[in-house]
Design a protein that fits this description.
Blueprint (H helix, E strand, L loop, with lengths): L23 E12 L2 H9 L3 E2 L2 E2 H14 L1 H4 L10 E8 L5 E11 L4 H19 L7 E11 L5 E2 L2
Antiparallel strand pairs: 1-5, 1-6, 2-3, 4-5, 6-7
Helix pairs in contact: 2-4
Amino acid sequence: MNEFSHLDEMGKPRMVDVSEKNISLRTATARSIVSLPLDVLNKLESDQFQTKKGSVFQTAIIAGIMAAKRTGSLIPLCHPLALENCEIEIHVNDQREIVIECSATIKARTGVEMEALVGCTMAALTVYDMCKSLSHDIKIRETELIEKKGGKNDFTRT
């Protein structure tokens, strides 16, 4: 079994030392799902996802990218990374849920899983914020890592 990487041998929190690792291409994709009441989703679709605050999806994309770039400031033991790419895709799936996927890329000594997770989470929170005037019965759920590549281990959710 692996040990927690963010604790030293005395159990104190620490930033992981990545200085000896090789720089390599690292990618990660994460997904959040937002469930809206059907009447709210229907209203959004009829208004082409525009509200008085602006475009729901466009605003969520910008918020998610901004948050992904600030992950090192938001999560205490994350390394501050200069992302080389961050993309957010948003669509409505067959179950009538809003699906948000964030993909991040960097050439670095450490991965970008947290950046992808923060990006899709903040985009989901922005959807909530922009729709809460219509209903507070909004659920953000299933935020999860879908895939990561590069570094010691690759991962793909099955």
